[in-house]
Amino acid sequence: MSLKIASDSSPVAPTRPSQIFSVEERLTLTTSSNVLGFWLVAQTWILVFLLLGLAASYPGALTALLVLVVLPGRQLGLAVLMHEAGHGSLFASSALNRIVGQWFCALPTLGDLPSYAAGHLEHHRKAGTADDPDLVNYAAYPISKQSFRRKVVRDLTGQTGFKLLMSLFKGGAGNMNRAQVSGRALLLKQIWVQMALFLVLYMLGWGWTWILWFASFMTTYMLVIRLRQIAEHGAVPNLYDLDPRINTRTVDAPLWQRFLVAPHGVNFHLEHHFMAAVPCYRLADLRRLLHARGYFDAIPKDSSYFEVLMKVLQPSPSASS
User: Smallest Cα–Cα separation from 188: which of 199, 200, 179, 196?
Assistant: First the structure.
């Protein structure tokens, strides 16, 4: 379903979606598709297995390095699809959002859909305020290059990943979430899914490549997650302004950067905060319409993740390690 901008469209004073878009446009933008949802999940897992199959067929340092660079974006892709399912927008079916979002997206990346959704919706409700539960991920930016370098070292040496594992064993809800879950049921599900993934790889004759999957998760994936967090809200004009144009950032990055660190339209974060019910596969349409209606007039444009790093890696009196 595509959107067309009327030739007589003129910019309007942008405020709420209902004041910018017609009922028909809002319906089109927020319509979820089971077919597109399944395609994104299948596409992500196909790329995962292609990468691990390549490493199995041509074992060596170069293929291992390729996996460590490219696989984290696919792992983030699964986490992004968990995020979509948490909003109830990945599939038209609530059952598919709940089941596929948990078992094929959240648990493989050591997450938990129900607890993530609860915490993330709180982030949407309180973004632009001091009560935003995700502030801890980006409130300190900009930081010094030395401080950021220490964070990168912690990510790439597995220290950040190890901290996540310890949180899971203590009852944490896992990847991309700070909520707590009582009992060990979640941890057992996460372990079971990892065992199932290993079993599938083993039956393909690639059992050892699970080590690459887990090594990527523990190292380069942690860095990709950090880049996503700071790109979305780090060093924005004002974290404590309720206008998403001020407290949130979209990165119009080239395709290769989006493939590596921003799959499934996660770079369109400003648009997501403006209209959270829009599925990730319709965010580009939303952005195009908002541009046509003047929503982004006078808003600075970020065209790459390198540009974002230049903004967030500046010396600051509040720099932290």
Answer: 196
